[in-house]
Design goal:
- The chain is an alpha+beta fold and about 180 residues long.
- It has a single domain, classed as NADH Oxidase (3-Layer(aba) Sandwich).
- It has a four-stranded antiparallel sheet with strand order 1-2-4-3, sandwiched between helices.
- The longest helix is centred in the middle third of the chain and has 21 residues.
- The radius of gyration is 17 Å and the shape is globular.
- The two termini are about 30 Å apart.
Amino acid sequence: MISELIRSRRAVYPAQYNAQAISKDELVSILESANWAPTHRRTEPWRFKVFHTEESRRKLSDFLGEIYEETVQPFSEVKHKKVMDKPLQAACVLAICMQRDPKESVPEWEEIAATAMAVQNMWLHASALHIGAYWSSPALKDHLHKLVDMEEGEKCLGFFYMGKYDGEVSEGERKTSIEDKTEWV
């Protein structure tokens, strides 16, 4: 049932991934789920840059490492290594991008929200396939246009790391109930 899948979805981080590959068919099915997210005025703003091969993930790793060195102060060798390791630990990394409607027919926040819903669809689909996922949005994302082509009005909202993992994810919890967050008017 969908409610069980929603409650069991968790962030699974790159350090937890095993070396098992994610097939192109699995990736296409996950991306297809993204394409069915709600979208106001049918702008379908979600865009994804797929780093699936070892070579493309290595390029992303090197790029993020260089940008970290150029832009982050104070420099931390530990954080620099983590930034570079994440794409290599993952079986696939998607750059989550949002293409702004050129007509600006809807507010930008609605385009961002639609893209986030597309990511939620992917995350749920990946979870159903026992593929772990994690959305990271470091400041380095703002430099992605230096690595890949981006259209006018397109911006990167973060990176979606994916990988297969062993074992089970932890139980979820919420600090407060939905009743504490709901006012019936």
